[in-house]
Amino acid sequence: MSVKQTAKMELVETDLLPKGFKVPKSRFTHPSTRMRQLLDSEPYLFGPGIYDPMGAQMVMYYGFKAAYFSGYSFAMGHVGSTDMDLYSSTEIADGARRTVSGLRKFQLAMAVGDPEKNQPPMHLEIPPLVADMDGGYGNIFNVQRATELYVQAGVAAAHIEDQVLPKRCGHIGGKALVSANEMIGKLRMARAVANDMDNKDFVIIARTDGVSAIDAPESARGIKLAVERGLRYMDTGIPDLLWCEFSTSDRGPVETFASEIRKRFPKARFAFNWSSSFKWFKDPNPITFAQLGDLGFKFIFITLGGQHASSHGLSVLLQDMAQHQEGGYINLQRKEWIDNADFPTKSHHFFSGVPYHQLMGHEYDAARLGFEFGEHLAEDKVV
How far is CA 172 from CA 143, 169, 314, in A? Predict the structure, then answer.
C-alpha cells in the first residue's frame, strides 16, 4: 500500500458510517479553507490533472493533497473535442460537482476497507479540487453564474483567464486578450459571489495569456505584457494566486515573471502549469517542482496528465487485444494482480465501494444489500 498516512491525522465518527468506523476530521473543513491551510503549510501544493470522479479518486488514493479539474481534459473526455470553449459553464460545473461528491463518497468507502476479505480501513484525506473556469463563459453575469455553481459544488478554487471569448487552450495559436479592466471586472464578480455565498476562503486564481497573445489593447507583447497584466490584477488585491501561461518549458521567462511581480508584491504567490503541451523529456534541465516552490509557485499542476495516462493505458490494452484477442486482457490482469502491485482498481468492486454499500445496506435494512447476500466464491476465481 503506497498511500501516505498522516501520523497525526485526527479521526472522527460520521453518521454515514456504522459505529466504530471513522474518517479524518478534515472531512468537515470546507475545501477552500483546507486549500488555504495547505498553501500556507506546504512548500508547494501539487494537483494532478483529472477530468472525472474516478480519476480524482485515484489521486486521493495515492495521497496527493490537491486535484486539478482540467478544462482541456474535460473537453476531450466530455464532448470528444478540443479546448476552444466547446462546452458550457453548466456542463463543467456539473462535472466538478460530481467529482467533489465522488471524493466524499470514496472517503467513506475506503474507511470501511473490506471486512469480508480482511482488508483494513484506509483513512484518506479529501484533496481540494481546483477547477478551470476558462474566461468565465461570457460577461460578468456568466462569471456570476459559473462561480455560484462552483461554490455550490464544493470546489475549493477556480481560475479565470483574460482571453477574448471564445477562448482557446493557452498553447494553441491565435489568442487575443480582453482589456485588463474587463478581466478585473470578472475577478471582482467571482470574489463578490463567493463572499455573498459565505465562502470568503474561495481561492481565486487570475491567469494571463499575455506571453503568447497576438492581439491585446496594450502595445506591449510577450513577457512584458504578461508582467503588466499580472501587476494590474495584483493591484486589485483579489487574486490569491497569479498564473502566467508560458509558451515553452524554458525557465528564463518563468523566473523573470516571478521576479518582476515580486518587486512590487514581495509575498505574491503563483500557480504554474507544468504543461502536458511541452516535451519535458527533451528538456536537458527541466524546472523542478521544488525549484518552482522556491520561486513562489505555490500551486503546481499538470493539466492533461490524467488524460494522457488514461489514453496510454487504454491504447496499450487495445493494441494487445487487437493482436492477441482475449490474451491481451489476460496480460492486463497479470500486471494488475502481480504480487505487491498497488493498483486499487484491480478489484472494481472494492474501488467502487461495494463493501461500503453492503455494510450500510445491512445497517439500514436495505433490500438485498447486506453482506449476507454476497456470493462466497473462491478468491482465486473472482475479484
Answer: 23, 5, 26
The architecture in CATH of the region 24-303 reads: Alpha-Beta Barrel (3.20)
Residue pair 124/107 in contact by the 8 Å Cβ criterion? yes
| Buried residues in 255-266 as b, exposed as e (16+ CB within 10 A) | eebbebbeeebe
Per DSSP, 203 falls in state E
Neighbours of 52 (CB within 10 A): 19
Residue 168, all three cell numbers: 482557446
Element (DSSP H or E) covering residue 7: none
- The pLDDT-based confidence of 173 (bands split at 50, 70, 90) is confident
> Are the beta carbons of 67 and 47 closer than 8 angstroms?
yes
- 1 band by pLDDT with thresholds 50, 70 and 90: very low
Contacts of residue 187, defined as CB under 8 A and 6 or more positions apart, other chains included, come to 160, 204, 206, 233, 236, 238, 239
The per-residue pLDDT for 376 is 67
Cell numbers 466464491 correspond to what residue? Answer: 377
Q: Considering only CA atoms, which of 62, 75, 85 is closest in space to residue 142?
A: 85
- First vs last C-alpha separation in the chain: 18
List the domain boundaries for the chain.
24-303, 305-336, 342-373
244 noted as active-site residue = no
Please state whether beta strands 45-50 and 270-273 pair in parallel, antiparallel, or not at all (unpaired): unpaired
Number of H helices, E strands in the chain: 13, 10
Across the range 112-118, mean pLDDT stands at 87
Distance CA 134, CA 84 (A): 10
Instruction: Give the best-scoring range by mean pLDDT among 54-68, 111-125, 329-343.
Output: 54-68
Q: Summarize pLDDT for 316-363 with one digit per residue, the tens.
A: 999 999 999 999 999 999 999 999 889 999 989 899 999 998 888 888
Catalytic residue (choose from 96, 133, 169, 206): 169
Mean pLDDT of the chain: 93
